[in-house]
Design goal:
- The chain is α+β, with helices and mostly antiparallel strands.
- It has a single domain, classed as 2-Layer Sandwich (Alpha-Beta Plaits), CATH 3.30.70.
- The protein is 35% helix and 26% strand.
- The chain is built from 2 helices and 3 strands; from the N terminus they run E-H-E-E-H.
- Strands 1-3-2 form a 3-stranded antiparallel beta sheet, covered by helices on one side.
- The longest helix is centred in the first third of the chain and has 13 residues.
- The radius of gyration is 12 Å and the shape is globular.
Length: 66
């Protein structure tokens, strides 16, 4: 993976991050979730990353879904 990635969203609600990943996929924007949430103690967050060149469009999609 040669692309540079940037985090555009994070939340302690992993399901919400998965839904946003689906919205981006529907718009042909590749994204990756890094789940930093501890399953035993339930703290931490899931982070959503996209390639830098898609960050602006991805942010617009996420903001319009709120």
């Amino acid at each position: 993976m040669d692309e540079k990635w940037t985090m555009i969203f994070s939340s302690s609600d992993v399901i919400k991050v998965e839904i946003l990943k689906g919205l981006l996929a529907a718009e042909n924007i590749e994204s990756v979730i890094i789940n930093k949430k501890d399953s035993a103690y339930l703290f931490g967050e899931a982070e959503l990353y996209v390639p830098v060149e898609d960050a602006f469009e991805a942010n617009q999609i996420i903001n319009s879904s709120k």
